[in-house]
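Is this the right way to post structure tokens for a design question? Let me know if I should format differently. Anyway, here goes:
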């Protein structure tokens, strides 16, 4: 369970109790010692204690950056590198008052995203004299360890673990869930919902990243079984071993077939080519075809991410199933 008793007494300088009028509800802000956002400011996670047996972890999404222009001359599609004072974005799965949320009774941990490295980095870059802390992977590991050692999480109590992420957070869910499960010896049911992760990119996709970022990606990806993908943007074709490592999880992938962000903006590929890759023998649905624990929600649209709003989570797939219905079906059929 999440233990909030005595929290303010222990962490008076570190805690800010946040209440705001939205579906998201009330959260407690925990500053993680040594963890940093991209601009060097302090990094926090948000927690909410409800259930002693059920835990939901959400990774916030966002963009990625690799040079001065992508990090500092950003549009709304590129990442924020500073600390979030509140949860700036929340999904249907963390919206406690939403009637469409099957996880409203869960305890929750929300990982904000401010490092522009798909929650996978552990190095500092210098872009034309401006320093960026690509500490996403490091922050996540430090945060989870801190929550456990300070007894803000009691891993022994949880019997169910749900992990959700969209966009960069979707990559994070794949990268970190494998390690999270080691903290929970009594968990019986594990669910992962992976919203718009890309994984179907163009052949020039990796060329934008420098050697330090590639090294971080390699460390993070290799640890979950994703190998031999750094000369080929069609990452999905190498995902077989990753899915084997998650064979005891129920996994739902959510895709817009012509996702404009994962194709044109970051993927070095056209939306039409993105669609054809997903539906090809190099696509993730084909790679996962014999995995009974893996399901797909697909829609022929250019929309990127679906569980971050009531509108998009109500959209219907090529099989006439809404995202909400898809998530609930996988969850309640446990």
């Amino acid at each position: 369970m999440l233990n909030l008793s005595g929290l303010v007494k222990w962490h008076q300088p570190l805690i800010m109790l946040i209440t705001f009028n939205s579906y998201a509800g009330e959260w407690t802000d925990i500053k993680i010692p040594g963890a940093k956002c991209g601009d060097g400011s302090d990094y926090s996670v948000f927690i909410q204690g409800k259930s002693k047996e059920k835990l939901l972890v959400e990774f916030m999404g966002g963009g990625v950056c690799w040079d001065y222009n992508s990090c500092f001359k950003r549009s709304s599609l590129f990442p924020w590198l500073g600390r979030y004072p509140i949860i700036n974005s929340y999904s249907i799965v963390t919206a406690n008052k939403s009637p469409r949320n099957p996880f409203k009774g869960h305890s929750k941990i929300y990982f904000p995203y401010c490092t522009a490295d798909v929650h996978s980095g552990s190095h500092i870059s210098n872009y034309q004299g401006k320093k960026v802390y690509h500490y996403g992977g490091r922050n996540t590991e430090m945060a989870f360890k801190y929550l456990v050692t300070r007894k803000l999480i009691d891993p022994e109590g949880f019997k169910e673990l749900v992990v959700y992420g969209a966009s960069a957070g979707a990559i994070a869910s794949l990268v970190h869930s494998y390690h999270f499960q080691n903290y929970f010896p009594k968990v019986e049911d594990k669910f992962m919902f992976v919203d718009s992760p890309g994984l179907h990119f163009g052949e020039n996709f990796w060329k934008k990243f420098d050697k330090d970022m590639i090294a971080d990606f390699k460390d993070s990806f290799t640890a979950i079984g994703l190998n031999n993908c750094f000369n080929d943007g069609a990452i999905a074709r190498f995902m077989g071993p990753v899915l084997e490592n998650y064979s005891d999880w129920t996994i739902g992938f959510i895709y817009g077939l012509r996702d404009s962000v994962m194709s044109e903006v970051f993927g070095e590929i056209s939306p039409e080519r993105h669609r054809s890759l997903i539906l090809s023998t190099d696509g993730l649905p084909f790679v996962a075809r014999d995995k009974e624990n893996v399901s797909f929600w697909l829609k022929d649209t250019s929309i990127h991410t679906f569980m971050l709003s009531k509108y998009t989570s109500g959209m219907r797939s090529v099989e006439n199933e809404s995202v909400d219905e898809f998530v609930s079906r996988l969850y309640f059929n446990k």
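Format looks fine. Someone answered above. Worth noting: The two ends are 21 Å apart (CA to CA). The CA atoms of residues 20 and 168 lie 25 Å apart.
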